[in-house]
Amino acid sequence: MTERRSILADVAGFVMVLMVITQSAFAALGTSDDLIAAKKSEMWRVPEGAMAYWAFDPTRFGSGFADDPVRMGIEATLRSLVSSRLFSDEDTSSMLAAVLASSVVGSVPHRLVVLDFKAHSKAGAKGGMAIDHLEMVLELYTPGDHRGFLRTIRSIVVDSSAGQQKSSQRAIELGDGSQGVAFSMQEWPAWREISWASRPGVFYVALGRGALAHWLSMKKDQLALGLWQPHRKSVLEDDAKGEVVFEAFCNINALRHGFPEAFGDARPGRLLRAWKLINARSVMFHARWIESAQSRADSSDDQERITALLAAEITWSARSRPVDEIGKKVIAMSSWPGDEAVGLPMPPGSYVAVLPVEWRWLFDLGKDSYRAGLKPWDAIEHEHVRKKWMAANYTKLKRLLASAEPWLVLSDYPRPPIAAPGVTTVYIPLKDEVSSVRFERDMTSVLSAFSDLVDAQGDDQLWSLRVAPRSIDPAGLLRVLSWGLAGGKGNRVLVGGWGQRAVSVNRKWLGDEEGKAEPE
């Protein structure tokens, strides 16, 4: 547990630094030409040699998050809880920090790049991973004055560390005549050093000694080259091209070189086996914004409202095949199959993603992925608990999985209160013959083993997930995910989203015979 918490503390520490730094970005974030130009010219052109990257442009998903009072209130509460260290439980604290960090970063066009990573397995019964070398850079595309970033870094990284260990802060040369700043503590290894620099339109934060200078030297001749190029080409050749809004890439061969022991019985290897990617050379996830020809009348103002399609694919390159031979699987479709086919009207948000799903396969994938991420001794205990739970709930679980139509629909209706990537409303259409009473009983029974984390309101056919266990948060203030049944007879839908409002708004929409949406 000590080793696990040590790694969590290292990662959470960097996440917290990024979180508070990016909070300052909202004061300067806008839709200026400088921001758009920087985003378009740099974000999708990743230099040769990067090991992995994540790039996300949230501007298509709406504006105004910076001034949204609901978002500001939620993030203020989360910041207070994180900084006060009210929760001694490490997992809860890390989860709160992750939710807050993702909400802050999610409104800013950004790119996170892993330049290098090397690690080895620790000796001894507990094992674990020891990081030998790490270089990682976060770019925030935001115009305006970056002095707020510098004050934030000093208050969070420097001032908060005063009196704990001997620290050092120094100017670093970045190879083009400009300078940045690096900060480290006496007992930190080189890979934990944090550095930062400001350039017109971009603010950089790096983890690892020398990472920032390395990154900027790579960007001098920035070209769309590398193992990701054939991946991207295979998607952009699609008839429905759309605008790229998200990409995530991993050079699995580079990971093999940097941490070869991980591909034995370590967690990364087990995860890749669960995902059928153990023999992949590289893998990439793509999401594109496709303007839809389909439209609907918004009854609140009789104006035509266009709902875009969010298409998504996963691509991979197998080591047994040529580099430019790319496998591809559609995750979210580039066109709406039709209300009758899906079993649900198109939600009236600004976008919709429709995923064809085989529910039993998805359940097994989630179960295997979770188990693969556990340490061996935790996996043994988990398997014992899982088998006991499956024995008690097999029939009910099988009935629940068979109740759903083979579609999963995502939308931003109602608009989520935070800007974290992936926070959306989820719709699972149910088959016509499904009894809502039986479905509610099965769902409540299956979730009863998690009663410390799930609040069930059976009479209202509503369930809510707690971030913190009831012993820590007895009032349920941190219930962030809710799901419940909506729609009339023959049009039942399981709806989930951030908070109970996601369910109540969609109940009104799906329950109205005229299909009127609640004005936002």
Helix/strand structural class = alpha+beta
Shape: globular
Q: What is the gyration radius calculated from CA atoms?
A: 24 Å
Compute the average pLDDT.
77
The major beta sheet can be summarized as: 18 strands, mixed
Query: Could you estimate the helical fraction of the residues in percent?
Result: 25-40%
Annotation, overall tally of beta strands: 20
Distance between the termini: 46 Å
Which residues form runs of ≥5 with pLDDT under 50?
A: 1-31, 155-163, 295-304, 512-520
Estimate the strand proportion. 25-35%
- Tally of individual helices: 15
Brief overview:
The chain has 520 residues and is of the alpha+beta class. It has helices spanning 2-23, 25-28, 33-42, 69-84, 90-105, 147-158, 211-218, 228-236, 252-258, 267-274, 339-342, 359-372, 376-403, 436-447, 501-511; strands at residues 52-56, 110-121, 129-141, 167-173, 179-185, 194-199, 202-207, 243-251, 280-290, 295-298, 303-306, 308-318, 327-332, 351-356, 407-411, 425-429, 454-457, 462-466, 479-486, 493-498.
Provide structural commentary.
The protein has 15 helices and 20 strands. It has 520 residues and is α+β, with helices and mostly antiparallel strands. It has an 18-stranded mixed beta sheet that branches. It has a two-stranded antiparallel ribbon with strand order 10-11. A hairpin with a 4-residue loop joins β10 (295-298) and β11. The longest helix has 28 residues, at 376-403.
Topology diagram in text:
Elements: H1 2-23, H2 25-28, H3 33-42, E1 52-56, H4 69-84, H5 90-105, E2 110-121, E3 129-141, H6 147-158, E4 167-173, E5 179-185, E6 194-199, E7 202-207, H7 211-218, H8 228-236, E8 243-251, H9 252-258, H10 267-274, E9 280-290, E10 295-298, E11 303-306, E12 308-318, E13 327-332, H11 339-342, E14 351-356, H12 359-372, H13 376-403, E15 407-411, E16 425-429, H14 436-447, E17 454-457, E18 462-466, E19 479-486, E20 493-498, H15 501-511
